[in-house]
Amino acid sequence: MNYQEYRQSLNRKLAEKVQCELADFREDVLSKSPQEVYDAAYQIILKNDIAECFSEADYSPQAAKALMKSPNLLQDIYEEWLEKDDSHMEDLRQTIADFKSYMVKTEKILSGKER
């Protein structure tokens, strides 16, 4: 097996590990009450997004091996994200501000008040 095949193999194993963890998480969530599922909505979305990132990743063999050592990689990354989630809110606030500006400008144009 050459280096590229080895690298691809490790990345595939890493993605499979994350997919297995996601399947276990999904099974656990589906055993909960509707309210608990609702309360876990953010976690469900984020863990699916994390898993998608791993399906597209191309890590070095060293990085892939290091990541695979995490007992629950999906949960560990989710917890890391929660500590850094400020950027998400900043992005959301900026998106809202940009959309507000767009709507105000559109209203002015439609009402004939923009010159």
Architecture blueprint of SSEs:
Blueprint: H1 3-30, H2 34-39, H3 41-56, H4 61-68, H5 73-83, H6 86-110
Summarize the structure.
The chain is 82% helix and 0% strand.
Give the assembly state of these chains.
single chain
* Strand-pairing-aware structural class: mainly alpha
Stretches with pLDDT under 50, minimum 5 residues: none
- Strand content of the residues, in percent? under 5%
Number of helices: 6
Largest sheet: none
Identify the overall geometry.
extended
Number of strands: 0
Cα radius of gyration in angstroms? 21 Å
Distance between the termini: 67 Å
- Which range best describes the helical content: under 10%, 10-25%, 25-40%, 40-55%, 55-70% or over 70%? over 70%
Average predicted local confidence, pLDDT:
92
Order of helices and strands: HHHHHH
Account of the protein in words:
The chain is mainly α. 82% of the residues lie in helices and 0% in strands. The chain is built from six helices and no strands. It has helices spanning 3-30, 34-39, 41-56, 61-68, 73-83, 86-110. Helix 1 (3-30) packs antiparallel against helix 3 (41-56), helix 1 runs parallel beside helix 4 and helix 3 crosses helix 5. The longest helix has 28 residues, at 3-30. The chain is extended. The termini are far apart. The mean pLDDT is 92.
